[in-house]
User: What shape does this take?
Amino acid sequence: MSTLRFGRILSWIVLAGVGLVAVVYFWDPTRRAAITQTVGWFLTAVRFLFSGKG
Amino acid sequence: MTLGFLGTDWRTWAGIFFLLAFSAVLYWGWYFHFSGKPSGILYALIAAQVLFIGQVLGVSLVLGWFGILRPTPLALGCGLISIGVYTLGVRPNWNTVRETNRAFGLWLRKTRIPFWVVLLGLLTLIILLRNIFWGWFLPPFLRDDIAYHLTIMGNIIQSGALHFFPSPSEWIRDYPVNSELFQAWNFFFLGMDKLVDLAFLPTILTGGLAMYGICRKFGFSRRASAVGWAVFAFTPLVFLEQLGSYNDAWMASLFLCGVYFVLSHRSDRGPDGVRWTVILAGLCSGVILGTKFSGALEVIAIGVLLALQILHPFFSSGQADKTGSGVKISEVLAPISIFIVLTAFFGAYPMIRNTIAEGNPLAPVEVRIGEWIQWPGRSASEFPSIGSEEVLQNARNGWDRVYTIWFERYRLVYDWNNSGTGPIWLFLGIPGAILWIWESFRKRNAQAIAISLLSLMILIFTPAQWRPRYVLSLLLMGGLGGALLFEALRNWPRRILAGGLVAAAAFIVFASLRPAPLEADKAMALVVQRTDLQRNAAFAHPTNEFYEWVESRTSASPAVIVYGRWVDTYPLFGSDLRNTVFSLPAYTAEQWRTQLAERGADLVVVAAGSSEEGWTRDSGDYEEVFRYESWIVYERK
Assistant: This one.
């Protein structure tokens, strides 16, 4: 299995395919929402801790 | 009760210390035993974890069958086995053990680890700290955990026995017991559920090592094998299930360990090497079967791979020529028998229990062949709808569902039920798996073809395979394919791929840092304002007013609680299982009242408008003390 070697053109094709999937994956509102929701969650947690309740 | 340090009193600290120290003694005994053998350090690390699970589960199962599953007999049973391991397996080879470990330490210091692997290591550390932090401070809070996994654990611990537990919930009645029994190990010595959420963490880390080892067995370089490990380890479902009672990643890890042992099978290492391979593979297989019924497909996969591996020398012409003796039946039958016996010992109990109690070994799922119903139950097609109603409505057919869920078009990374594949599954896992299948046939590599076909069998026959957590064993092909892809690239394409891998891993690690279903202030209140006893699942449940009332009513005086209809039962127990919680199977008012009196029920939880509510109210022995939405609590007058 480990003896497989891709040629230069095939390497380009593989990388382009992987890149395309990456663009499709991240070009999506749910991905951006994942980041903003996490930031928002921790900001709320910090506010709670410094509100005197913590 | 004293507040203690970080909300943990000294008795619990002592219990935690004992649990960690005793588990370490058990684990390292097996590790030292194997590091004195020629199989290598990686094999020793993986074998030790699998045998630790086998030791704990084996003793727990036997004690449970005899109804004496208590901390002292459990510790004695496990301790006696480990005395045998240290005396017979470690002491005679101690010099070899020391030399092997010293040589490994030297090798590790000399080895140059690529920067991108160091970064992936740091991300793994962040995830570990994240899981240990939330596992330490939060009570069990995930849906299935409090609906049935931990209720099963609670029932077993309270009764000290393994038997059929009646309940309106078919999951509590019929679900297998292995993962819950293993979680009980983290409860017994503490007397509370503080660490039960972290029970699967070491095994899932070991699953990553097994993935790395499998890649190495196929001849990939260390760097490419690290890519294979990353495909497995950075699938969000895998690292998120290091925390909680969802057992899919635990099962997938044991599957990888089983495959790793089978691939390590070497007849030239003598009968001892062959015997241990078969024992370890059988152990993985049995634990999987007794964890979830769909694991039967993974058991078949490990069994077929093992049979091929055992039979291989007999069919290779070289071996036949050298020995001139042909096939010895005993050399084939003995290891296969050991494998079957171990699989049955660790995995058959739930099926036997369900056959006796429900007349269907795979209850609650109906088993039918065509029109012929072999064992009655609910149709397998009904189960995927639970918690996925919206997905099923939006994505009508199988392909649509696979696309929607695997591409995470619908949910974010931290939704256990309908998502959790992450970007690496897509970037490397799926393309890698396709490439792997192609290459395995092109190279006519028997082992690779077997892995491809068996993985596809698991994918096709697993019910609701569009739900990624049911088909995590696909990561075997995904990891191998990722390694194959990386190995095939050179220079800058390889660097781009490594960079993309780190970036994708960083994204999902960051996006998963919070404990998904819990609001920030609720989680923080549990961390900083409560003691361990108050860190109860009741405070994390969405309908917490009902559970909080039960918690405050029973915090000073434990109660016998009876429930009449489906309810998430685990929060009723209390984090130290102080309350006895059970359901009463009653069909008439008379039956209900008699059983309430016989069992000495203090509190009765019923659904508003149900027959049980009427029977309880009309009995005259109980009065309504609390009502929340559809739930009513009656207390004995």
About this structure: The helical segments of chain A are 8-26, 29-49. Chain A has two helices and no strands. Chain A has a mean pLDDT of 76. Residues 26 and 32 of chain A are 8 Å apart (CA to CA).
